[in-house]
Amino acid sequence: MNVWFVTNDDLVYTFGNNTYGKLGLGHNLIVNKPEIIPELCAKNVQKFINGDRFALCITFDQQIYSFGSNECKQLGRHTISNDNNKPAIITYLSDKCIIDIKCGSYHSLALSSAGTVYGWGHNNRGQSGCGQQQQQQQTLDCIDSPTHESQKIHILEEVKQLQKLQSKFVVKFYDTWIESKILYIQMELLSNSLKDLIELKAKTFQRKTSEPMDCIEYYITSHIMLEMCECVEYLHTRQPPVIHRDLKPANILINDKPLDNRFLKLCDFGLATDHNRMGSESELHTKNVGTDKYMAQEVREYNGIDRVAYNEKSDVYSLGCILLDLFDVNSNNDMQ
Length: 336
Hints:
This protein is α+β, with helices and mostly antiparallel strands. It has two domains: 2-133, Regulator of chromosome condensation 1/beta-lactamase-inhibitor protein II (Methylamine Dehydrogenase, Chain H, 7 Propeller); 192-335, Transferase(Phosphotransferase), domain 1. It contains four helices and 20 strands. The chain has helices at residues 149-164, 194-204, 215-236, 313-326, and strands spanning 2-6, 12-16, 31-36, 45-50, 54-59, 64-68, 88-89, 98-103, 107-112, 117-121, 137-144, 173-179, 182-189, 192-193, 242-243, 252-254, 264-266, 273-274, 283-286, 307-310. It has a four-stranded antiparallel beta sheet with strand order 4-5-6-7, with no helix packed on it. β1 and β2 (12-16) form a beta hairpin. α3 (215-236) packs antiparallel against α4 (313-326). 32% of the residues are buried. The model is unreliable at 132-147 and 275-288 (pLDDT under 50).
């Protein structure tokens, strides 16, 4: 049980079991006697709403604070490290004149004075009201004032590519906006990647890395390979073709509760580029982009040349390197 209360002099106290840091004290230790929440004092808090692993509160001036677990993005804000355990304003709602809030177990809802309802968090049964039912969550990412021009370009390129690539083969893009010089990107949340699967696969099947796969593991691995190839084929059959340029296990995400029996989706299109052939098989593109282990030889830097000729086959090379990892094949150094 967790308890919050406000005194006549506008001090906010709390105590309780504090699982997932949902008391808003900056830690997840049990609190047996009331302690002050400094961030909420003198804020004229009107109401607290208790979710399963998180909490919201609304102030008299219609500001919404959230704290606790953010595993399903139910806090409605970007969190770093353990700052989710302390109350902070959901800035997206600051100017929306919110008059009421509600929580489910892993999702949240807010009602504005204009009658608009905002929803965020887990949406496996459509409970957040954000379009069709999704077995996965929605994530609300934000990038705070990128300091380098290259970082800004990377972010904007990813947004541009995601807007074009609305498909079951690619992580779903929902929305983007700029607020207080912060760029927010709302997209589908898939928590696991092929990198995680590769690291755990041999152990799951109780196999040493030097031992061959049994027929079941081989069948599952082959199906994963097929889905990977279909994802890359989707990019390369666009008009014009799209070269991902940073294919690696960490950029292939896993949907553990798919609606269409597909488990893999591509993400991180910050380095992706269109390939306009213009009657030629190859076009000049930026050199030396991507992750070294999975980078094709023609993409690497040579002789100080800024742009080199390559095409979507560079992704196929990256795909082959991933398959070596997936099938637990020891490649020699010059293949990498």
